[in-house]
């Protein structure tokens, strides 16, 4: 069932005397289920990605009736990073090391995932930060 299936339903049948008869209407109300049970996954697994490589974060919702609206955020900021179930960072940089969260709304309620830590792994010059 979908939310738009709510309404009044009746049936009609052909009787032996060749007349149609219609039943009393029955009201059917389809209720939405708010989104919950959200989980995040990363590719590569564990959210550890090499500098300049591609990272894909996926948000999965265990329950919830649609339509569902997704939004991605970094470090709890209000900045919107994406609006689909997957967030793709094509070439990660140093400032992409952070916590990422997905929010899902059904238009009435909002659910938020636990944060996922992303670590960008890059080669460091062993002399960086050393005293001359």
Task: Describe this protein with a few key phrases.
rod-shaped; three-stranded antiparallel β-sheet; single chain; Ig-like_dom_sf; Ig-like_fold; five-stranded mixed β-sheet; Immunoglobulin-like; 132 residues; 45% strand; FCRL2 protein; Ig_sub; mainly beta; disordered C terminus
Question: What does it look like?
Answer:
This protein has 132 residues and is mainly beta. The chain has a domain at 36-121: Immunoglobulins (Immunoglobulin-like, Sandwich), CATH 2.60.40.10. Helix content is 0%, strand content 45%. The chain contains no helices and twelve strands. The strands form four sheets. Strands 6, 8, 10, 11 and 12 form a five-stranded mixed beta sheet that branches. Strands 5-7-9 form a three-stranded antiparallel beta sheet, with no helix packed on it. A hairpin with a 4-residue loop joins β10 and β11 (110-112). Mean pLDDT is 87; it is low at 123-130.
Brief overview, please?
The chain contains no helices and twelve strands.
